[in-house]
Amino acid sequence: MSSYDQYQHLTFDRPSEGVLQVTINRPDRLNAANKRLHWELGKVWLDVGTDSQTRVAVVTGAGKAFCAGGDLDMVLDQANDFSQIVETMAEARDIVYNIANCDKPIISAINGVAVGAGLAVALMADVSVIAEDAQLTDGHLRLGVGAGDHAAIVWPILCGLAKAKYYLLTADFIDGKEAERIGLVSLCRPPEEVLPTALEVAQKLAGGPQHAVRWTKRALNHWVRNAGPIFEASLALEMLNFFDVDVIEGASAIKDRRPPRFPSAANHERDEG
C-alpha cells in the first residue's frame, strides 16, 4: 500500500475505480520543477507501482500548463555545482526509467505547455493525450545544454530520427496537432476534452485484463530499454554542459525574455574572423 503524503507539489485523486490522477501542482510557476518537484517526478512512479488500489495512472498539470520544465532558479543554482549536478542526473534517470519500468500504464493529459523534464513525463507515458493548442519544446538547446534526459531515448522512437534531430537541434515549439501528425503523441483533442479523454482511456485499461495490459507495456518498453546506452550518453553530455558558460547565458536570457548571446557562438565567430 503506497502513501502519497510525502509529496509537496503533486496532488492525487481517484476519479474512478483503479484510476489514480496525479496532478503537477505549481500553477503559479506554470508547474515548473524546482528541486523538490524534480525529485518527486521520478519517485512517484515507484509508489504507483506498489499501490494496490491503482491499476492505471493519469498525469496532468494544474492550471494552464502541464509542466514548463526546470525552474530557472534551480538551473542557475546548480550550474558549476558538481554535487547538485550529480543529484539532478540521478533524478533525471529516475524520471525516465521509473516511468518505463512501472508495470502499470501511465497516461499523460497534456493540457498546456510542456518543456524539458515536464515533456519527459508527458512523452515517456504509455499513452499521451494533448490539447490542440498545447505547445511543446524539448528546450535544452534554448538553455544552452545538450538534449539529454528523455529526448535522445524516446523522440527517435516516436517520430523518427529526422524529425527528432530537427526539433531537438532547433528547440522549436510544436503544437498539439503537429505533435499528433508526426507521431510524437497518441491523441490530440480540443482543450476541454483532454482530461476526459485521458480518463476514458484509463478506465478502459483499468477494466481490461491486467496481466495482459502490464505485460504488453513491459514488452513494448524494451524499445526504450534498448536505447538505454544512448540515453545514458545524452544525459551525461547534458550534465557536462552545466559546467559551461553557455548555460548561464541561456537561463538568464529566458528569464529576461531576450534572445541569448551564447559565449561559445561569439568565440566561434571571432575564431572564424
TrEMBL record:
Reactions the enzyme catalyzes: a (3S)-3-hydroxyacyl-CoA = a (2E)-enoyl-CoA + H2O; a 4-saturated-(3S)-3-hydroxyacyl-CoA = a (3E)-enoyl-CoA + H2O
Keywords, comma-separated and alphabetical: Fatty acid metabolism, Lipid metabolism, Lyase
An MF annotation (GO) of this entry: 3-hydroxyacyl-CoA dehydratase activity
InterPro entries registered for this protein in UniProt: ClpP/crotonase-like_dom_sf, Enoyl-CoA_hyd/isom_CS, Enoyl-CoA_hydra/iso, Enoyl-CoA_hydra_C
Top-rank taxon: Bacteria
SUPFAM superfamilies, per the entry: ClpP/crotonase
Catalytic EC class: lyase
CDD domains: crotonase-like
Key word Lyase present: yes
GO terms of biological process kind: fatty acid metabolic process
Gene3D superfamilies: 2-enoyl-CoA Hydratase, Chain A, domain 1, Lyase 2-enoyl-coa Hydratase, Chain A, domain 2
EC number: 4.2.1.17
Function: Could possibly oxidize fatty acids using specific components.
Membership in a protein family: Belongs to the enoyl-CoA hydratase/isomerase family.
NCBIfam families linked to this entry: PRK07327.1
Name by which UniProt lists this protein: Enoyl-CoA hydratase
